[in-house]
Specification:
The chain has 14 helices and 22 strands. It is an alpha/beta fold and about 500 residues long. It folds into 3 domains: about 210 residues, FAD/NAD(P)-binding domain; about 110 residues, FAD/NAD(P)-binding domain (3-Layer(bba) Sandwich); about 150 residues, FAD/NAD-linked reductase, C-terminal dimerisation domain (Enolase-like, domain 1, 2-Layer Sandwich), CATH 3.30.390.30. A hairpin with a 6-residue loop joins strand 5 and strand 6. The N and C termini lie far apart (about 55 Å). It binds flavin-adenine dinucleotide and nicotinamide-adenine-dinucleotide.
Amino acid sequence: MRYDLVVIGSGPGGQKAAIAASKLGKRVAIVERAKQLVGGVCLHTGTIPSKTIREAILHLTGFRQRGAYPDLYRNKRQITMDELRRKLAQVSRTEWEVLQDQFDRNGVEVHAGEASFVDRQTIRIGALGEHYIIHADNVILAPGTKPARPKHIPFDGVTVFDSDEFLNLDHIPRSMVVVGAGVIGIEYGLMFATLGVKVTLIDGRPNLLEFVDREIIDVLVYHARSLGVTLRLGEAVENIHKIDEGSVAVELASGKRIVGETVLFSVGRQGDTAALNVEAAGLTADKRGRLSCDENFQTEVRGIYAVGDIVGFPALASAAMEQGRQAASHAFKQPFQPCDSIPYGLFTVPEISTVGKNEEELTKDCVPYETGVARFSEIARGQIIGDTTGLLKLLFHRETLQLLGVHCIGDAATELVHIGQAVMRLGGTIEYFRDTVFNYPTMAECYKVAALDGLNKIRLAYTSPTAPAKEERREVEQLDAAADAEESTLPILTTLSELATESPSTPIV
Ligand SMILES: Cc1cc2nc3c(=O)[nH]c(=O)nc-3n(C[C@H](O)[C@H](O)[C@H](O)COP(=O)(O)OP(=O)(O)OC[C@H]3O[C@@H](n4cnc5c(N)ncnc54)[C@H](O)[C@@H]3O)c2cc1C
Ligand SMILES: NC(=O)c1ccc[n+]([C@@H]2O[C@H](COP(=O)([O-])OP(=O)(O)OC[C@H]3O[C@@H](n4cnc5c(N)ncnc54)[C@H](O)[C@@H]3O)[C@@H](O)[C@H]2O)c1
């Protein structure tokens, strides 16, 4: 069997690589060793399960409505893990069928078994002795990652869990200790705190999620604390041991001892390259099992590509898909325009999303920027849905007004961010939001409010006594007066409703 392309791993990176190549008329095979076959960590243990369970938690607890109807908060008193998992079985099954169908329709041949290199273009499928061989002109490696499982941690899948097995919990514990408050730890920690579980989050770093804007993290911490979460940051975990069937102790280097019914150990993930025998292809994985590649996702060996979590940051399903398409395009000499602004969506409670630069990065690069902020409490839709703590922050260049970053926390933040992303990718300025009319009452209004806030700040800074000197101000005032006289024949728009009627793109519902 000889293929133009063999893809190893059927997570988001592998899927999109395989389909992209088959659309170019290539003969493509995808190899997957998991028993439940195609879909990867994304479909079977990571993204889809965690987001489906999160949605079930928000629905069954009535979390989204609790701001609007505090007295009716909680749809259901007793919630079980089986109820949380009920929708998951259906979502996973349907997603799996959609994927399998796509492969069939596009003629992608699925091989079930573990792949390993014999040489650069020869791949063994299955264990030695029960294997067969396939040949490939090009290979795309998308084997993903596995949770880090240090030997001294007593994982048992009953009280001490890694993140791939966590949703197998047989009941909702009363208390839970999360070691590693990265993306996975915080997402699961806050989900379970929403269910009323007493959660302690422990992390070795002094600050949470350092790649996220600090103001957004402040809001997240406020929410975490109001859900009863205890944060232990800057703490090293020395030891974890079971006390009895229903409790585990986590010992910290500082001498603290935290006891919980369940421990989630989520201190990062490692590249799943151990079985691949990458050395036979001329490759070497780093000590975290990851592979390096160039900007086209080609490794140091021509014709072998690596995409998805195996190449490290940002380690997102969304990015993996794009990388898969890019690698396949490069292998078959097709043009490809990579996305320069990948958003980050954190499905915490409440959710967070961010795209572009944050304040810390702009400050470090000495970029003159200003911020425009809209708080959900001042947006009619925010009041209606009962989310009055969320916020949207725009960062823009103080002189050119170009949009540089969008940071959002609150209901639907992971959707809302895409409006800003579109404007940013098209090189737009925040004037776009000032001059565009959005449906009302919607959360999109945040963009307009934030833009007006930002523009007002600039105006204020310019006319404040500390800004331009008195002489300069007089000159500006004279120029303004002359301009005013000239424009006196034009209508002056003072209110949003007047602006609305003038806007060239009023949406129709
Ligand atoms: C709990 C959790 C929540 C997440 N939530 C989100 C989210 O909300 N949004 C988001 O964008 N991302 C999220 N992610 C990250 C996302 O799941 C990953 O970025 C994505 O799955 C990576 O895709 P991938 O293509 O690299 O491979 P993976 O999805 O990791 O799949 C790799 C596949 O390769 C197979 N494989 C490995 N080695 C071999 C071999 N030798 N032979 C045959 N097959 C092999 C594996 O069995 C696996 O099926 C989450 C991750 C976790 C763990
Ligand atoms: N919504 C999403 O997009 C989403 C959701 C979940 C996961 N993911 C992806 O999955 C990847 C893996 O997530 P993760 O949370 O496992 O890894 P991570 O690298 O994001 O976080 C690991 C955390 O554990 C801490 N840590 C490490 N060793 C420790 C120790 N001994 N004691 C205490 N703390 C320790 C680190 O300081 C870090 O904060 C992420 O990079 C992310 O991209 C994405």
